[in-house]
Amino acid sequence: MPNIEEKSQVVSEIKEKFQQSSGVVLADYRGLTVAQVTQLRAQLRQAGVEYKVLKNTLVRRAAQEVGVEGLESYLEGPTALAFSNDPVAPAKILLDFAKANKLKSFAIKAGVLEGKVIGPDGVKNLADLPSREVLLAMVLRGMQAPLAGMANVLQGPIRKMGYALEEVRKLKEAQ
């Protein structure tokens, strides 16, 4: 049984993870085999997501100290937490893993997005979002389109001048 010092150290580590992560997903991991857990951890690690099974009481205390309110009701039964700087990655990976392995007992309990608690439906909606890189590419494409259009419009008079000069050249040759 860990003593109070060890527990407070674990609580401070959890607090630090909450503060450093922009996205945290809580999952009920019941029904996973050891091989599936190993596979899931590998997928999460590849995406830069830290996956930990933690005691609910310690998570509850850390969440209260950080100021995350409303998480207590989700901290029942076995709970695994996935911490990430990308708020979409843990939700997407966990849900895709559950679908791919046809897991019925594995369930998303809740999520914490930028310090605010979201329910399982919110986590599912979050997983449907494109990744950060895709969203940035979409924004850049949106910014680039008007510039490309403007360049095309500005080239129009120059192009027309070229056509006119070509016609003049043809007329001069015909004479």
TrEMBL record:
Keyword rRNA-binding: yes
A GO BP entry: translation
Pfam families with a match to the protein in the record: Ribosomal_L10
HAMAP family listed in its UniProt record: Ribosomal_uL10
Similarity comment: family membership: Belongs to the universal ribosomal protein uL10 family.
General function of this protein: Forms part of the ribosomal stalk, playing a central role in the interaction of the ribosome with GTP-bound translation factors.
Protein name: Large ribosomal subunit protein uL10
Species assigned in the record: Desulfosporosinus acididurans
